[in-house]
Amino acid sequence: MSRDQPFAYQAVYRYLLQWLDSVASDQEQRLPSLRELALRLKVSLSTIKYAYALLEDEGRICSRPRQGYFTRAMVSAALPVAGPALLDDLYAHARQPGRLALCSDAPAMLLSLEQPLLMTERELARQYPRTQAPLYQPLGEQELRSELARRYTRSTCDYWQADQVFLGADLRSVLELSLQALDLGDGVALVESPCSWAVLRQLRAARLRIIELPLNAAGCFDLQQVQALLKHEPVRLAVLSSTVNIPHGSLMPAADKQQLCRWFAERGIWLLENDSYGEFSFVPEAVRYRDFADPERLLVFASLDKAIGAEAPFSYVLSRSLGPQLHRQFLERSFRLSPIRQKAVARLFSSGRLDQHLHKLRGMLQQRMHQLRQLLAEQAGAQLFAPIPAGGATLWVEARRPVAMTRVYEQLLAQGIVIAPGSIFSQQGLWQHHLRLSYTLDWSKDIAGALGQLAQALDQAS
Fold this sequence. Notes:
Elements: H1 8-22, H2 34-41, H3 45-57, E1 61-64, E2 68-71, H4 85-94, E3 100-101, H5 114-127, H6 142-152, E4 165-168, H7 171-182, E5 188-193, H8 197-205, E6 209-214, H9 223-232, E7 235-241, H10 254-267, E8 270-274, E9 298-303, H11 305-308, E10 315-319, H12 323-333, H13 339-350, H14 353-380, E11 384-385, E12 394-399, H15 405-413, E13 417-418, E14 420-421, E15 434-438, H16 447-461
Parallel strand pairs: 3-13, 5-6, 5-7, 7-8, 8-9
Antiparallel strand pairs: 1-2, 4-10, 9-10, 11-12, 12-15, 14-15
Helix pairs in contact: 1-3, 2-3, 5-13, 6-13, 7-8, 7-12, 9-10, 14-16, 15-16
């Protein structure tokens, strides 16, 4: 295979993308079976299955037991949007061809490591023939688990081991298995608000009662309110961002994090720390919750695709005390993850390539953040206010006058523009007058014009 020749699954994936765009419809359509497509394209069944899995992860297709794979129906922009269907509607529209999605939260869209990753994978494939590579690694490739443990180790007192790291196919499944391992029953979970929609969805699926702790403009909780709440509510879990509060974009003071961790330790509350954006703080050496947390009541989870790109969808969780429970959950799930791809990711860590990439990417994110804020001030400064974020890939924007952002969302859909209303980041109806805007955009598009249309939609909706 030449250096420029794509892997078979990439060619199949691109073929299917073009086919899906050509048959886009408001009606579901059945896709060819795995065997049928493998015969047609003269590739293996596993290649077709992997390409289908990528499309399913992106929400372009869906699978049904004993029926096969189906396209997702195109949603008409004229349909009203309300309630829990808003999130699914938003992501369905954002993935449609021709849309300008201002709602992404993927830093790697500005600069990815996908090409170095695939080049490393090709080199490793020559060193590790498939016949020698283990096909069943339900806990993850040992080399990558070791690299992640090394990366999280801070000292001889604060260290991690490879068998305390568990790798899964994506963030959703890793969160699901972590909550099952915790086995909190019908317990109470605290979350920062606004909160990642992926976290909210998994907590609801686990039947936990969610209490939101709203962040103020400075990125702080009302600590007196938190203390009173902990005295009167049977809280068993807190899910918080490690550095920058995502999607709020603020940075919790170190003293506040230390106080919260002290209260959690006193009450035996588990801390589930979201480290997916931990490396994207614009503040050097930003303090993390795990710097103060009880290590026996701590789980850290993250998704590798935020830094590397879509070719590395793996997620992981670290825990010192839940090893047996996580081991059992991951064995039962039986992930089939590419060993060579995981080894390639591990080499990006060990070579220092990932750290170089992150340093450059943070600089690009800051540059694009200032560029988007400037355009927003020029086009919609009279209607919107966007504080300078302490990191991440998005702006948390507030309307200067009360306006329902879901109405603005509906109006912009008709113009091919997709925004993320603030209400999808709360399950209690908070943040109705806010929205999240991404600066990891396709900057070849007319972003200034899109923001001008946003300003017009705000005027109409208010």
